[in-house]
Every structure is written in structure tokens, then in C-alpha cells.
User: Fold this.
Amino acid sequence: MHDDRWDAVDAYTTGLLQPADPALEAALKDSAVLPNIAVSAPQGQFLHLLARTISARRILEIGTLGGYSAIWMGRALPEGGRLISLELDERRAEVARRNIARAGLDGNVEVRVGPALDSLAQLRADQAEAFDLVFIDADKRNAPEYFSNAVDLSHPGSLIVVDNVVRQGKLIETQSNDPDTDGMRRLIEQMGADRRITPAVIQTVGVKGWDGFALALVLES
Ligand code: SAH
Ligand code: DHB
Ligand code: MG
Assistant:
């Protein structure tokens, strides 16, 4: 499902709200060899604004790709702030590291390679300082486990954002036979039952079609 006006509205608003940005444009250009699934420009700006709103000093991202969303969020960090981004694929991580360095963020942003569930276990074993913001945007079938880990790596007041929960409406398909849709369905059920968080889901349209974010404010961790 797609309406050309969704793209036109994204173009119109970003034209007014996002000045030319060589580092972000170069990051997209050098990500052309990768799947075209980074957050859109308006979504990146939204994540940036969320991070600024909560004065995030420590950010965790699950799913780096070419580093486009990492650059948007990394730019929200104060001096000395830190973003750790987890990526399965070494080649994608290399592209991301180059893009992040070109944006001048290599001092603040670190890409860790490996299955995110392993990297998350390592962060917990290391008793990593709690993250203020977690952005979950990797393989959708593992979203429930990523969310549990995100809560455990948070503090009261942390914000968790999950991309791609609506999946062009597939979220409501009860017999989807799609492990990724199923992952998102289990995630929303889990969020509804988790008394440690207060949740919201918001649908979106735009250049990436019809999708949506799940958000959770952590109350206790
Ligand atoms: N957040 C990025 C887009 C991420 S796309 C942006 O908006 O710019 C999803 C990424 O998750 C892909 O690069 C994929 O390789 C990665 N991924 C998939 N399965 C993973 C896993 N098990 N562990 C870590 N990363 C994974
Ligand atoms: C896909 C993954 C994403 O994170 C996204 O935002 C859009 C599409 C995908 O795997 O198809
Ligand atoms: Mg996504």
C-alpha cells in the first residue's frame, strides 16, 4: 500500500525543516550497496528530537546497517555522550563506521559486530551503565527478546523505541506465517503485559510506506 502523496509530504516537510546535510547525504550514497531500509529523513529527525528531549547521554541501537539512524541520534549526544550500535554483518558495520567517522562522530559512536542477542548478553555481563534511549531496529523475529534486554539495560525514565511494528498493516494478521510479523505481534502483547513500562504505538506513513513505532517509557528496571 502506497500513496505518492506520502512521499510528497515527506519531501515538502524535509525541504523546509532539513537544510542540506553533506554527512547524511554521503552516508546514504555509500549505503547504496546495502538494502534501502534505513529510517527515512523525517524519522531520523524524529529520533534525534526524542534523544534531545530526554537529554540522552547513553544510547543503544540494535541494527546499524550503514549508520544513517546512528548519525541522527549520535548528533543528539552531548560532549562525552556515547552511542553503541549492534550489527550482525561485518561488511555493513564497516560501511557504517566510515559514514560515522565522516560525520565526525567516531569519538562517540561505536559499532559492535555480532548477533545482537550475544552483544546484549555481553553488555549485561559487563554491567554496562544504563542507557537513556534504546532504538530497536534489527531482525523483527527477535524483537521481544531485544525489548526485554532493553528494559533490563535501562533506568526509570529511559525511552525505548521500536521501528517497523506495523509492517504495512501485517501486524493484525493473526495467521501470518511470517516470523517477523509474529515477532512484532508478540512484542506488542509483551508490552501490554509488562508493568515495568508504559507503552504507546503510533502508525506512520511516508516514503517507507505504512508502518509505525512502538514506544515505551521505563518505569522500573
Ligand atoms: N537502524 C538502521 C537500519 C537497520 S536495518 C538505520 O535506520 O539506518 C536492520 C539491520 O539489522 C541490518 O543491517 C541487519 O544486518 C541487522 N541485523 C539483522 N539481524 C541481526 C542480528 N541478529 N543481530 C544484529 N543485527 C542484526
Ligand atoms: C526492513 C527492515 C527495516 O528495519 C525497515 O525499517 C524496513 C524494512 C526489512 O527487513 O525489510
Ligand atoms: Mg527499520
